[in-house]
Amino acid sequence: MKRYLIIGLPVAMLLAWLLWPAAEQAESGPVDVTSIERGDITQIVSAVGSVRALNTVEVGSQLSGQILELFVDFNSPVEAGDLLARLDPQTFERRVQEAEANLAVARANVEVQTAGIAKAEASYANARRELERQQSLVERGSVSASALDLAETTYLSARADIEIARAQKVNAEATVQQREAALEAARIDLERTEIRSPINGVVIQRAVDIGQTVAASLQAPVLFTIAQDLAAIRIEASVDEADIGTVREGAEARFDVDAFPGQEFSGRVGQVRLAPNEEQNVVTYTVVIDADNPARRLLPGMTASIDIITGRQENALRVDNAAIRFRPPEDLVAGNDAEAPGGRGPGGRQPGAEMAEMLTGLGVDERTRRDIERDMREAFESMRGLFASGADRETIGQRMREATRQVMERHLDAEQLDALTELQRERENTRAATLYSPRPDGTFTPHPVRLGISDDRFTEIVSGDLDEGAKVITRMRRVTSR
Questions:
Q1: What is the tens place of the pLDDT at every residue in 110-121?
Q2: Could you give the CA distance from residue 209 to residue 230 in angstroms, rounded to a whole number?
């Protein structure tokens, strides 16, 4: 869209000039000027958001049943563990009793199996003695070999009965553990018939009444909504993608709500969420603002109009925004005829002038500056093929940054490199522009400057050749003759 605007605006201006009645001609007239002054500038980003509690919990029920008692209502203050409601516990009490009975049976079965082991051990001892007697009788020839075989079989069977009895006892003990777990689960369900608050706060929503049946299936039904102590709140504001780049955590914010017209509240940016919100091709980001609410006047759901302070300068050199927007006819700019087309960069400055200015400020001598200029020119000449190849801007920009860094590392020491990096970082937060002052002969003198933060009226002048009190043009009136 920006590309279309850049192309379309000159075309529209040309058409307007061509279609203007031929009898009318515009001539240069008087100009309006303003003075460069000092004052405070506060840059803000405006947004709209909703007041939220710091933490809101929806309290539900894991069980199905009928609401027997309610202990809280709307706006009731609660503490963690307080009883909110109770479901009819009869069904769950019976389940506990049933589980207790099953556990008693399982424990009795363990006793039975213990007695069975004792019985099997007694039978085993008797079978062993009988086997020993039969072996003695067979040796004397008093009984047949078949009697010995029968005694040996009885002995082996008695020993197997002991193993069976012991295994049955292990099974009975496992059943006891199972019944104990079932009893604990039944008791937990019985406890869950009492709905309790998980946090300290205030009840802002009650969704049930006494006698109402709660059906918990795939999702727990919400019975109460509890907001954490409203002495502190947060606002979730939607900030446009064009403004989000200047918003930082910790930034001061001011806001007001319709409920208290004329009263301003304050807070700070606590979080800038990275996830974008896209709706109808409009991208916004959620900015969370934390604020105190000691009187608890701000309520969840209120709509807040927010101003986030993204920059503030006191006693700054500033100029009226109209002067920045002013663009004079090219033939009235002093020295414009001597310029080669395209010979100046953004803000009317020669390409490389800003870098030369920074190097001079760092104390780099003239010879070193010339060497840097020569090496930079050679480095960019070597990249002509990259420019001609149609590479994307990101790739070209990365190569240019690498080439610049290599040249600077060859000619500057570590301290100068660090200082240059800091200056470049500072300039990233400024922009180039040109202001114009009137001359006695009716032409205008251009003044390249760098601009900082802006508000709805003024913009900060970070650097340039203009001082406080200097006059710059904000508008040129045209005198029309027929």
A1: 999 999 999 999
A2: 25
